[in-house]
Amino acid sequence: MKINLYNRLQQVTDDRNVEGYIDLIHEDAQIIFHKSGNRFGKGEWASMVAGMMQNPKFVSDASRCVYENEEILVVHNFMSYTDDTKEAVMLVCMLKDGKLIRMETGATPLS
């Protein structure tokens, strides 16, 4: 059974709905940035997401769902950031109870 978390995640991101986005994150979530190795819990990530979504320069230029089932969501995005950089971002999410419990990103800078 496909839960279609991808569409819900895209909608709250497109709407810049911070509360809706955070609601999709499991209470025990871990967010890991591959490039830096930094790890965040839900509270820390919520603060970062709020700041990003408030800035109009933070944009998902393109997004596609690579794969999704009840256990995993794999997404590829082209992202523009507040410092005017762009990256191709692979997001792999483990799911629990219909929410994101582990998110890991890998990013490639675009020139």
Q: Any overview of this molecule?
A:
Helices cover 26% and strands 48% of the residues. The chain has three helices and six strands. The model has no long low-confidence stretch (mean pLDDT 92). The N and C termini lie far apart (39 Å). Strands 2-1-6-5-4-3 form a six-stranded mixed sheet. A hairpin with a 5-residue loop joins strand 4 (72-80) and strand 5. The protein is an alpha+beta fold and 111 residues long.
Order of helices and strands: HHEEHEEEE
Beta strand % = over 45%
Strand order of the largest sheet: 2-1-6-5-4-3
Number of helices: 3
Rg value? 13 Å
Q: What gap, in angstroms, lies between the N and C termini?
A: 39 Å
| Structural class by sheet pairing and helices | alpha+beta
Q: How much helical structure, as a percent, in the residues?
A: 25-40%
Short description:
Helix content is 26%, strand content 48%. The protein is α+β, with helices and mostly antiparallel strands.
Secondary-structure map with pairings?
Blueprint: H1 5-14, H2 18-23, E1 25-33, E2 39-40, H3 42-54, E3 59-68, E4 72-80, E5 86-96, E6 99-110
Parallel strand pairs: 1-6
Antiparallel strand pairs: 1-2, 3-4, 4-5, 5-6
Keywords:
about 110 residues; alpha+beta; six-stranded mixed sheet; 3 helices; about 25% helix
